[in-house]
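Lay summary

Proteins are chains of building blocks that fold into shapes. Our project writes down both the chain and a compact code for its shape. Here are two examples, one after the other.
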Amino acid sequence: MLAAVFEGNGKLVLEEREKPRVAKATDVLLKVQGVGICGTDLHILQCPPAHPATVGAILGHEFTGEVVETGSAVTEVRPGDRVLVDPHPGCGVCEECRSGHPDRCGPLYASASAPGHCATIGIFSDGAMTSYTLIPAHAVYRIDPSVPPHIAALAEPLACVVSAADKLKVQPGENAVVLGGGPIGLLFTSLFKASGAAKVIVSEISPYRRKAAIACGATQAVDPTEENLSAIVSREMPGGADVVVEAVGPLLPLAIELVHSSGRVLQFGHDELARPAVPVAELLRKEITIFGSFIGKFSFHKLPRIIASGVLPLEHIVSHRLPLSRVQEGIDLLRRGQAIKVVLHPEAY
């Protein structure tokens, strides 16, 4: 089968790999039907990298597919089921997992005393930029087969956003600013509007993504290189926004500037190289609450219902659908800001 393999130093190559086989009683063999290219994949492929990954691993952690075969102990799904996949499932038995922190199970938190048990699928272990992939049974969630694969492939980023938004608890009538109009920023925009936000301003330099932001529910989409974002927020949201989401990486100081006193800021943009200078005095004067959010822990069980309901305009977020053989084209489109979410569909082998 064809596979997109990370070779280190910014290199992603297409090569032939053997189809994996069920080896454990808890294994699920999945035929991949759609896999998204994530901003994390772009960070992995930077030089120097802005996110770690295992050299030699097949990338692809945002995916959906059909169950082909299961191990003898698997009862949750059976062949033919369409499923979503949590690529950060945790092992379920280590101290971090048992204390409610599956996000800390794995290489990012490994040490000599706590080596880590679970590897994020598609980053630290083989993922879904290929035709078939092997996953643990506790990572899969059945979804209505009527949901198109390119929409179901949004499950992982949506899980991350749902988990993060639960910390912010946006109330009807509140105002929000979203810094960044990529897939994550658009998912936050959609979710805030569905939660009853009065105004949502999205800051995004790409005209293509600004148009998508309006389609996803933004009341205004601002180009910060051409317009005074601070002045616009002050005019539209006197005193500042109740909630500001940083979905880029280095813009935490700007988020602090734009938020209302006693407001909430969410740092979501993940860039290992970002080291922004934080305006501590302003943070203190405003008595701001700052949240960080990593993966979509404990939110995947909600996704089959959210996605199938149609309450979020997810069709505006997937801009391109390409065969796996054109993965580099998809990466280039994203780097140039000419795409929002690219979903790959592996060729039939």
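And here is the second example, written the same way.
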Amino acid sequence: MSTRICIIRHGETDWNQEGRIQGQIDISLNDTGKAQALAMAFNAAHHRFSAIYSSDLKRTMETARALAEREGHEVIPMEGLRERHYGIFQNVTKHEAGDLYPEAHALYINRDLNYNFETGESLLGFADRVMNTFDWLARHHQNELIAVATHAGVLDVIRRIATEKPLQEPRDFHIPNCALNWFHHDGKGWHLEAWDDHHYLANVILDSVE
């Protein structure tokens, strides 16, 4: 049994450009993000996915629909694919977060496993949600290829699980908007096949925060 998944971070938003933490606040793609989604869809559609899933937030649904229209699919929204809930950090920039909540910001920077931003999700709780969602996808799409549009935080977790990198270690890899990232589940666990394929985005890609 093997399930292959192409996982795609959503296209750029204005809040990405501002360095503003979105979390689960529902922000749409900007013009660059829409162009990224179209470029991604043009290059990914030839893989012929069995299904296309997405976080139910606007920025991911818009990204997924660009691919689904080329594939002849309907996007299947899943709340479990949402970005981490950043609680009191949502709607502030990372710089502002450090000024407004210095103690909380230190816990965030150090990737504290249990801190939940007062009203959000702990890193451990978020990782459990992400893995439960992807394990469900693997069980329900055995021997199939599917696509998933989601968020940087979700990609961070699945990559760490697939490469056995601890959650609390600093991130040492980039998660560009609308790059293709390939994983498979062999019935025993997750494995990373290829990371950050974004050659088709040379004219539109921009790195940005969660």
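What can we say about the second shape? The chain has a mean pLDDT of 94.
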